[in-house]
Amino acid sequence: MTSALRAQTKNITISIVLMVIAGFAPAIVMGALGWKSAVSVAMLGGLATFMACTMGKGWHTGLVMAVPFSLMTALTVWSAPYALAAAVVLAVAAFFRGYAAKAGMQNAFLTVVIALGFIVAEPPKFSTSVPSPVLAGLVMLATTAWVTLIVWLAQRWVHPPMLAPITTDRVLWFSSVLALMVGIATWFVVDLKLGHGGGWIILTILVVYQPNLGDGFKKAGARAVGTIVGFVIAIVVGSVVENGPILYLLGTVCLIAAMVVMLTGKPYWYFAALLTPAIVLYESAGSTVTKVAVERLEATIIGVLITLFFMLLLLPLAARARKV
After folding, report:
1. Rounded CA separation 95/98 (Å)
2. Is 232 within 8 Å of 223 (Cβ atoms)?
3. Using CA atoms, how far apart are residues 156 and 154, in angstroms rounded to an integer?
4. CB count, 10 Å around CB of 133?
5. Exposure string for 283-321, b = 16+ CB within 10 A, e = fewer
6. Contacts with 98 (C-beta within 8 Å, 6 or more apart), sequence order
7. Whole-model pTM?
8. Which of 220, 241, 238, 218 has the alpha carbon at shortest distance from 230?
9. Using one digit for the tens of pLDDT, what is the confidence trace for 209-251?
């Protein structure tokens, strides 16, 4: 094994270990304590904060985003029963995520808005006298603080990427269109009560739409291909495995493989092809693999079609102004 390969393997291993400690630990602890309603919030928040730190500016990113992310979580839970309010909250979150491209931070905050999308699709319900929005916000604050602490302690092993800022004109186009798409999608997700599948639609829009339209069309194709391949993998696994714990184990293997693919810079469709069965197998422990896989495939296709529709509308403007 060459020194370069050893170094890469070491970095990947450390990143995965940190992801488990930082991203999953709060959810595991809350689950062990019996706080089931807090588990999903902690899981989403842990992973979102870890990705923001590692793809942004290290622990400084976690420190800056802790309070805003927690407040947005509380607002998201509060607005979840009301389609219009939820659409506005998610649109605002999407706009600020897009505007972060001015500092090259659009990828860092991608999973933050994705987390809010899943929370609004399936809001947590706490059976206490304290309002659910307040508790969800506090859980998110504690989770974000934990992840930031871990990243700070491990900063010698965390190497954030070089960030590429985008011009103000392009950022405004990107932010505004992204906010419009996410807002409209959120309205339908809440109004039609689409549940977790609705969160998947919002995720797909956030992943596919890019500051540059050409990149967006490529991402749409890669997302569709990767999801279909992942769908086939999940169906094959589900046809021979029905045991819940084994499905969780295989889902974890797929998730780790997806992280390795992402960290080594492989084509995006590889990542989607591994992430899809990971999510499907996790969710299938209480259902059937085929049912969950079909629901996720449908949601992804809807998200891709929505994004392609808006990007096609923008093509004439892009050709004229070269600002999109």
Report:
1. 5
2. no
3. 6
4. 20
5. bbbeeebeebbbbbbebbbbbbebbbebbeebeeeeeee
6. 106, 171, 174, 175, 176, 178, 179, 211
7. 0.89
8. 238
9. 988 877 778 888 888 888 889 888 888 887 777 766 777 788 8
